[in-house]
Amino acid sequence: SAAQKGAYPYYMLKEIDEQPGVMRTLVQEYFNEDGSIKIDADLLNALSQADRLYVVAAGTSYHAGLVGKELFEKLAKIPTEVHVASEFAYNPPLLSEKPFFIFLTQSGETADSRQVLTQVNAQGYPSLTITNVKASTLDREATYTLLLHAGPEIAVASTKAYTAQIAVLAILVKAYGEAKGLQAVKEFDLAAELTKVANGMQELVDEKGTVEKVAKEMLETTRNAFYLGRGIDYAVAQEAALKLKEVSYIQTEGFASGELKHGTIALIEEGTPVIAVITNPKTATHTRSNTQEVLARGANVMIISSRGVAQEGDQVVLPDVNPLLSPLLSIVPTQLLAYYASLQRGYDVDKPRNLAKSVTVE
Ligand code: G6P
């Protein structure tokens, strides 16, 4: 079955490798032959009545939500807020007049997220759960559901559910933007882009050696590490940092590249690993100058860049995709870095200490 490890030493590696296949499955599940999208008209109707979206999630799913906000705002022009479920539950933001709630949850069982959904239902607001688990609590209790079709995710550290969440959010944005009559969205050939993403992911997972080597050189003995990025790359930096700390126990933070100099650069010393994600031509030079600043202080720098902004010496150059979908590719080498760092340090990468796959207490 899909939940067997087969020839893989760990589920995490298997699940990283499954991502190209998940992208292809999502294209099949959500697109008709004629390119139209299989999303319930009622859901699109409810969405179109909203004046603001509230994405609520925890952990990795929260980080997928940060990318979702970029997609909703940049492509479909609807204001979108992303909230950590445990904060929202007890300190809710001031809501707009017509809010619509999107719960992102791999398991569909996270207590913090459910707590918010219960409140949302009590107030009579419409909601959508995007989950990997059919008939899970958050599936049953929300007004609408979209499934991730990622297959069972066994490793505690989430990988394929993150990329599936971003892809499903992109599909939802496309359907919503089309229903709204947005020309740019109509012209955005998402099915073709997701197929490109699948091919790009395949190239990245086929080149594990490079990342394994960087992990060995930079992460085998370090105490801390930093990820940098701007815009959508900052969203990726936060997820990449969570992944690395979860499985390698290296204290890792994801920073908005420009913010590093406002304090955290004090932590950079000889040999500190700094990994920068650079995909946006508008900010590439700024982030490059941030990496120069840490290099000058002795940091070991790794750069993950997209082809358009790549420079000689960048450790990973990503295959070309639409810039808004770049997180689907840029996250892959960071997942592999986390995996190899954990192995090299001698840990059980599938079952990191103190963590549970789904947290059903608040
Ligand atoms: C736990 C897991 C994380 C996950 C988070 C949210 O903390 O260890 O990997 O991201 O819960 O889970 P969910 O199922 O709601 O996406």
UniProtKB/TrEMBL annotation:
It is an enzyme of class 2 (transferase). Residues 43-182, 214-352 form the SIS domain. GO terms for cellular component: cytosol. Its EC number is 2.6.1.16. The active site is at residue 357. It is found in: Cytoplasm. The keyword Nucleotide-binding does not apply. One of its GO terms (molecular function) is carbohydrate derivative binding. It catalyses: D-fructose 6-phosphate + L-glutamine = D-glucosamine 6-phosphate + L-glutamate. Catalyzes the first step in hexosamine metabolism, converting fructose-6P into glucosamine-6P using glutamine as a nitrogen source. This is Glutamine--fructose-6-phosphate aminotransferase [isomerizing]. It comes from Ligilactobacillus hayakitensis DSM 18933 = JCM 14209.
